[in-house]
Amino acid sequence: MAPPPSVGKKKNVEDEEWSHGYRPRRDAVRLITKPGEFLVRATDMYPSADIVISAMDDNRKMVNITLKSDAEGWFLGPANERKTPRKFPTIVDLVDHYRAKGLSRTLKLTQMAIRPTWMIKHENVIYEQKDQLGSGNFCTAYKGKYTLKDGKTIDVAVKISLVAQAAAGLESEEAKESRMAMLREAQIMSFYTHENITQFYGIACDHQPLLVLMEFCAGGDLLTHLLKHGKNTDEKEKMVYLYEASLGMFFLHKKQCVHRDLAARNCLISNQGVIKIADFGLSKGIDSSDNKKEDDGSSKNKNGSNAQVPVRWMAPETLLKDAQGGPAYSRASDIWAFGVMTYEVFSNGIKPWPEDPVKYVATQIRKGNMPKLPESTPSKIVGLVSEMWAMDPNKRPVMRQIAKEFNTMLKNSTSSSSGSTYGPKEMTLNKINGVSRTAFFVSGVVGGVGHRRFLLIVVLCSCSDSMFNKVETSGGGPKLRRTQGSKGGKRGSSLRESKNSVDK
Ligand SMILES: Nc1ncnc2c1ncn2[C@@H]1O[C@H](COP(=O)(O)OP(=O)(O)OP(=O)(O)O)[C@@H](O)[C@H]1O
Ligand SMILES: [Mg+2]
User: Fold this and answer.
1) What percent of the chain has pLDDT over 90?
2) Is the CB of 198 inside a 6 Å radius of any atom of ligand 1?
3) Structural Rg of the chain based on CA atoms
């Protein structure tokens, strides 16, 4: 077991671009592709981590050398042990030395694999307990500050995994797997940029607590807004919420990302009053393969804690008792959840079957007995939701169609010929502290690639149909990966329908 690498000393390993912090071996294998390329990584969180140099030798063989330390300094571990190993005051000194000299005749450290920007350092993040934003199925969220490389500071939401927190210091396999999964997801999320999804900034994973940094949305979550202002919100404004959410989901589905926890609580309202999909990817970071499924569709995790899935938002095929390999999540099950979210929006934040136990709810869903939407829901939307709630996943519309439908409905109902005018002033979104929306209809352009960012402000919608012309060929389609790079449609067991999350 090695002590923290030169933390607090003159040369801090975390400042080096070749230092990747906690990073599993398989990541190193993927990142290092040529002889001479190298990185330094920790096999776990400090202080229980080994520090390893991963490099490729001239024969293209991957070599992992564990560093050791004693009172006299750092030196190369057993595989390279000499009678009297050369010792260095810091890891940085050691690496500098072998970069100049090479580790052996065939093993040189000539080119560093650079630490990605999404691997954030804890020292650049500040948050305080008093700034807690809330707590959900997987995380506790805080408002915090993040200092960027150029010294600029931005507001962020800092999320701390509850499993990682609970397991801090215990070295449980579940905690390790959870961190690995979060890292995998983080890598993927870092490539996602769209006006209607919350921007992911990165993960601080060098030591506990593991911090996930996201764009801070001053307007909070859509559920809270609906509960507070839903009654005074015009149906067209509600359609705007759903339209913008559908654009975010359309983008995620195009990226092969299945959300699996789509609900009004996971839609956030930005400072500009734009609806953004949150918690894609993150929630799947906590996954366990041997969770036992209960009759009511909930599941218990290895620790036997009452980890339950958010049954009310789940599609019937994801609630099958004997589903092999876990619930069958897919883009089509997200569409089902979008239907439930539409219900939430038009019932001003009331979830379906608000008073009933999950066992009853799961049975109703399996039978396809879904609740009626409130009388005030526009009939077109009632029709659309009934399509989203088709028992056969393949018969459900795809996100592109849903976005297009909302776009058309908004276009028709806000056109000058409809005789009514709608402006941002009337929007209840503008009643939220810290939110300022300047147009009734703001939409992110769909169809572009993840790295580009557009903001199209359209008063009285002028989006063309071509926005929706790409991707998605069938409702259910093939079973998708959870997100790119992570296998299976299995939902994490740690989903809970707990008092402070799903039931809130
Ligand atoms: N990026 C953010 N900006 C502003 N507030 C946020 C942000 N992320 C989360 N919050 C707030 O913190 C609360 C808790 O978030 P969290 O995602 O942990 O739980 P949840 O959304 O209620 O449940 P779930 O586990 O299904 O995501 C949210 O309800 C929201 O009000
Ligand atoms: Mg959430």
Assistant:
1) 53
2) yes
3) 25
Q: Are 426 and 406 in contact (CB under 8 A)?
A: no
Q: 98 C-alpha vs ligand 1 centroid, how far in Å? A: 46
For residues 119 and 101, what is the distance between their CA atoms, to the nearest angstrom? 29
Rounded mean pLDDT of the chain? Answer: 79
- Please say whether the dihedral angle defined by the alpha carbons of residues 127, 432, 222 and 401, taken in this order, is positive or negative: negative
Domain assignments of the chain as residue spans, ordered by start: 13-112, 122-215, 222-480
Instruction: Please work out whether the CB of residue 221 comes within 6 Å of at least one atom of ligand 1.
Output: yes
For residue 266 and ligand 1, the question of a CB distance below 6 A is answered with: yes
| CATH for 222-480 (2.60.120.260, 1.10.510.10, 3.30.1330.30, 1.10.3720.10) | 1.10.510.10
CA 96 to chain CA centroid, Å, is: 37
Give 182-225 pLDDT, tens digit per residue.
777 777 788 899 999 999 999 887 777 889 899 999 999 999 99
Higher pLDDT, 377 or 281: 377
Say which ligand is closest to the CA of 140.
Answer: 1
Distance 137 CA to ligand 2 centre (A): 8
Residue 287 has pLDDT above 50, yes or no: no
139 lines ligand 1 (CB under 6 A): yes
Pull the structure tokens for residue 453: 């960012």
pLDDT (0 to 100) of residue 164: 53
pTM for the structure as a whole: 0.77
The superfamily in CATH containing domain 13-112 is SH2 domain (3.30.505.10)
Q: Is ligand 1 within 6 A of the CB of residue 133? A: yes
Structural contact between residues 344 and 226, judged by C-beta atoms closer than 8 angstroms: yes
- pLDDT for position 117: 85
Nearest CA to ligand 1 atom 17: 136
Ligand nearest to the CA of 199: 1
CA distance 106 to 63: 11
Residue 59 Cα to ligand 1 middle (Å):
49
The alpha carbon of 137 and the centre of ligand 1 are apart by a number of angstroms equal to 9
CB 246 within 8 A of CB 406: yes
CATH fold for domain 122-215: Phosphorylase Kinase; domain 1 (3.30.200)
Q: Write out pLDDT tens, residues 217-244.
A: 999 999 999 999 999 999 999 999 999 9
